[in-house]
Amino acid sequence: MNAIILSAILGVVMMLSSAFIKNTKAYKSIALVGLIILLLANICETYSHAWLDIPMYDMLKFDRFGLYFNTLAIACTFLFCAFSQKEIEKVGQYIGEYFALIFFVLCGIFILSAYNNLLMLFVGIEIMSIPLYILTGARKENLKSNEASLKYFLMGSFSTGILLMGIALVYGGTGDFALTHHTAEINTSIAGAVNQPMSFLDVAGMLLILVGMCFKVSAAPFHFWAPDIYDGSPSVFSSFMATIVKAGAFIAFIRLFALREQETSILQNAIIGVDWKMLFSIIIVATLLFGNITAIFQQSVKRMLAYSSIAQAGFMLFALLSLNETAKEGLLLYVVAYSVATIGLFGILAKMKDYTLAGYNGMAKSHPTLAFANAIFLLSLSGIPLSIGFFAKYYMLMAVIQTGGYLWVAIVGVVFAVISVFYYFRVIWSMYFKEGSVELKYPVTKGFKVMAVVLALIIIILGTFPQIILNYLYF
Amino acid sequence: MIVLLILIPVAAGIISFFVKNGKAARTLALGASLLTFLAALVLVMTAKGTITLDQQWLPQIGSDFSLSMDGMAKMLCLLNAVALPLILSSTIREKYSNSGNFFGLLLLTQAGMMGVFLAADVLLFYFFWELALIPVYFLCSQYGGEKKIQATFKFFIYTFLGSLLLLIGIIYLYLKTPDHSFALEAFYNLHLTTTEQNVGFWLFFIAFAIKMPVFPLHTWQPDAYEQAPSAGTMVLSAVMVKMGIYATIRYVLPIFPEAAQHFNHIIIIFAVIGLLYASFIAIRQDDLKRLIAYSSIAHIGLMCAAVFSLQQIGMEGVMIQMFNHGINVLGLWIVATAIEQQIGTRKLSEMGGLATKAPVLAILFMIMALANVSLPLTNSFIGEFLMFNGLFRYNVWAGVFACVSIILVAIYTLWAMQKMFYGEVSDFTKNAVEAPKNTQYALVIITIVILILGVYPAPLLDLTKDTVHAVMSIK
Question: For A402, how many CA atoms within 13 A lie in the half-sphere containing its CB?
């Protein structure tokens, strides 16, 4: 609860500060301090020191998994703000508001990591999404950015509509919005109705919710909005959307199906006979296929990263297929691995004048530090050992293999991981093995270089000693 | 002490990245490689039995930093430790841009290979397996020939696919261990059903077969050898391919004994086809580097066939041949490099009459060539004899077909010898002079090893006796 309330308050504080403080540099400091407070508050709550004790009536349920995720999301946001503050300042004139919107997005994410009621799922998704529509169009003078914003808004609203329809049908089928109740004996709760096959309405509702959620995490075949929007929005916000926000949507996704798992498994006998695991497998394979294959053909690194983020979503979906403890831990690890690397990549990308592959030619000669950091980020995204990306993929594969009977999905995933190496390494080729001169839009400061190296070191250190995070998870 | 074998090259490799002076970097690399050699020599000479080291690494997932050095590991570590100083001294005249990076990558590759031979924890083994791969990828694609990027990328994709399948195999077995441990012992003690053995066998073996490489997974190899810088090719062919055979003996045979017995016919058929196929293609090669590459495929094919003959005598042959092949092929590469540097071509059709210009080189190459043909009194003779013996015991026809390669190898080796050193002096060779002293020294050392082991191979056989015994006693 701490995090939700505090992030909302911090959002308001940022808005007010932009009205009263004229020094643009101060916003960043306020935001970073705010994030640290938020982090501390959340850690306190993790170890049962909630500052506020508000009755939730089972609308929200704070468990370890959700709170751990919050900590990681806040830490990643901190890294994002510290690394990309210069770019945020350059997007437009409403810098304070941008930070405020980021806090509001976080508030939505925190709700999604704790919801226990389908209505809260809806509320969380909306709180998370609406600030994003604005951030996408933050570059007001840029037509592409405006178009992306409108597209995102329309697509987002459309998918929320489907989600809402699904929620309504589930309500129709079960007569309840709640996912679990405090008292287990009450059999009317959704999760309690293990012995009865799900009704037609319930199944149809869950399918619609599935579609809505697939939209949000850009899983195939509902992924087509993502490249245009990531490409059109200011790079710095694309990075936020592709990492922390997407992770938030994933947590919501996992929560829903983890809490309803008992029924989804008996669903094969249900009226319309949906085999959920098979359905997830198909979605995973399709997502990996579309994301990876399309990414190969991209000339723009920004668009390549957008498609690769779809491909990475495919890997994260492994957690949905497995829904076991390993999957949950793995997902948290994946969030860190993927977010840190992608924040770094987008951070450097935002400095570039030319977003195409050719723009990266010869970076190793002119900017060795940035090229080195970039190479580490890309190696981590490919899942090479000694980077945290390896452990992320390792956990996901382990989760699937543990499930039993789905070894083929793991093998398909591995084949696509090899394909992904192709486009990630193209950037490394450009940087290291091709001649050319890199033109930067903005000068690279020493601080930026240090931050890039810090991000790269985080990846290597966590890749060599993942127990730093694992210890925390296993506490 | 045992950890020094990994620690020295890792530390020197990392330091080397920051050394800007080319000469200093070379001295550092040479010094470090000599130190590693010394450490390996002391370990092999003084330590009796198996040396082990066990440190906690990732307790949460049951993986430890445990190393173990039995006879086979001692021999391969020694090969690895001998190879690098020889490689460095024979390529002393080559100039590299940014040589600090070059030597750093070379040393890291050596460290990775040491780790592969020493690891007694399967996850640790996987780590080192990849650690050996990545520096060598950068080494080859940054410092290689014209088509270096395509060639090394093909190599990387092949091996990375293998590695990931191996990872799935490792996780698959890990989940079957009773106490969820990655210790090699735990893997040995698994009681797997036939299906589990078969699935695991192929997941593991494909990775190793790509590395060896065995027909039909060999297509990356000639391109990679041709395009890599000389030092890279030497590392790849002298030591790295042994990783595949080593891992097959260490992992595949003991963990999947039933599957190995079930599938060994198929593998031997492929290995023998590959052996003949590579030999025939070698006869048609005009490029010296490609000729040695195909010759190497043929030799490795024989080793693979001998491993899967599952005969004690064949296994003894494989052990000693791993070392000998490493030494011989290193010698061939050193000569090939020396000749290319002298006359600026690798085409056999453009050479001729070198013996009058460089008699010492001619004599030394003659010895390497005879060792390649496995003439008695050279080191390979006893190894090949034992391996053919094993194959004959397995199946007469397999032995007969494999023996055809003895004729083929003699044809292409002597033919190449004749083209290069005898006949008319060509335009390219008319200005050639004797090979530089450092190359001669390296070749003399190799010649001494070839002759000593040719006359008295007992020390090597004794060294690896314990491993052969252990592997063959598993049923």
Answer: 22
Which helix (H) or strand (E) segment is B472 a member of? helix B465-472
> Secondary structure of B384-434 in the HEC alphabet?
HHHHHHHHHHHCHHHHHHHHHHHHHHHHHHHHHHHHHHCCCCCCCCCCCCC
Q: Which residues contact A409 (CB under 8 A, 6 or more apart)?
A: A281, A284, A285, A318, A321, A400
- Per-residue CA distances from B172 to A51, A98, A404, B387 (Å): 44, 46, 10, 33
Quote the DSSP letter at residue B306: H
The DSSP 8-state label assigned to residue A178 in this structure reads B
Which of A383, A410, A471 has its CB closest to that of B168? Answer: A410
How many percent of chain A have pLDDT more than 70? 92
B64 membership: H or E segment, kind and range = strand B63-69
Which contacts qualify for A153-159: CB closer than 8 Å, 24 or more apart?
A155/A215, A155/A225, A155/A229, A156/A129, A156/A132, A156/A215, A158/A215, A159/A211, A159/A212, A159/A215, A159/A216, A159/A222
CA A296 to chain centre: 22
> Quick one: which of B13, B160, B217 has its CA closest to B100?
B13
**Residues B226/B145, Cβ–Cβ less than 8 Å:** yes
Whether the predicted model's global pTM rises above the 0.95 cut: no
Give the tokens for residue B51.
């040396």
What is the predicted ipTM?
A: 0.79
Contacts of A407 in chain B (CB under 8 A): 168, 172, 199
Beta carbons of A91 and A125 less than 8 angstroms apart: no
Burial class (CB in 10 A: 0-12, 13-18, 19+), A454: middle
Which of A403, A467, A474 is best to mutate for the B interface (most B CBs within 10 A)?
A: A467
CB atoms within 10 A of CB A411: 17
Token digits for B361?
């080189």
Q: How far is it, in rounded angstroms, from Cα B28 to Cα B22?
A: 10
DSSP A183: S
Is there a contact between A425 and B153 if contact means CB atoms under 8 Å apart?
A: yes
Question: Can you tell me whether residue B56 is helix, strand or coil?
Answer: strand
What is the average pLDDT across B83-94?
Answer: 81
CB–CB contact A397 B171 (8 Å): yes
Express each pLDDT in A29-46 by its tens digit.
888 999 999 998 888 888
Beta bridge partners of A60: A115
Residues in B closer than 8 angstroms to A417, CB to CB, are: 164
Retrieve residue B140's tokens: 């080859």
Interface check A415 vs B, CB under 8 A:
yes
Nearest CA to B443 out of B372, B375, B379, B363 is that of B363
Share of chain A above pLDDT 90, in %: 18
Q: How confident is the model over B236-265, as pLDDT tens digits? A: 888 888 889 999 988 988 888 888 888 888
CA A178, A183, A187, A190: dihedral to nearest 10 degrees?
20
**Segment A56-59 long-range contacts (CB within 8 Å, at least 24 positions apart):** A56/A1, A56/A116, A58/A116, A58/A117, A58/A178, A58/A180, A58/A181, A58/A182, A59/A115, A59/A116, A59/A117, A59/A119, A59/A120
